[in-house]
Amino acid sequence: MTSVVLTDGPQLAEFLALETKVWEALVSGDAAADGRMLTEDFLGVYPSGFSGKSGHCGQLSDGPVMAGYRLSDAQLRVLSPEAVLLSYRAAYRPAGTPAWRSMLISSLWEKRADGWCNSFSQDTPETGGRMHE
């Protein structure tokens, strides 16, 4: 499979804006907004295990889970006209904590009948060491 990798431009900005809607839902505690961004068959792969859409949205049942976030080092891998993989670094502060943390995230966005939706996400905590090309 041949793919195009973008590190800037309007297409990358479009998918960062979509990803930001997910983060904003986590900050505002809006499960409905979170759910609108995810496919019904969403799969999340996290240090805590696997999660479906109900688990991702369910984490917001008691309100916001994030107090703040910053996204950086984004790249977009265009897999097909209907699928892209957005990878980036997220600095985030969980709700109720003063400490910032960092993780690397890859999100698969698929074009469905109702628009672009996130069907898969994998979060990898950063442990301090960085690998470089």
List keywords for this structure.
133 residues, alpha+beta, Nuclear Transport Factor 2, Chain: A, 3 helices, 7 strands
Brief overview, please?
The protein is an alpha+beta fold. The protein contains 3 helices and 7 strands. The protein has a 7-stranded mixed sheet.
Q: Give the tally of β-strands.
A: 7
Uncertain spans: none
Overall helicity: 10-25%
Tell me the count of domains: 1
CATH architecture descriptor text: Roll
Question: Radius of gyration in whole Å, from Cα?
Answer: 15 Å
Beta-strand fraction estimate: over 45%
Q: Largest sheet, described in full? A: 7 strands, mixed
* Secondary-structure element pattern, one letter each: EHHEEHEEEE
Mean pLDDT: 93
Query: How large is the count of helical segments?
Result: 3
> In the CATH hierarchy, what is the class?
Alpha Beta
CATH topological fold name:
Nuclear Transport Factor 2, Chain: A
Strand order of the biggest β-sheet = 1-4-5-6-7-2-3
Report the structural category: alpha+beta
What do you see in this structure?
The protein is 24% helix and 49% strand. By secondary structure, the protein is α+β, with helices and mostly antiparallel strands. The chain has a single domain (4-125), classed as Nuclear Transport Factor 2, Chain: A (Roll), CATH 3.10.450.50. Strands 1-4-5-6-7-2-3 form a seven-stranded mixed sheet. A hairpin with a 2-residue loop joins strand 6 (101-112) and strand 7 (115-125). Helix 1 (10-28) packs antiparallel against helix 2. The protein is globular, with a radius of gyration of 15 Å.
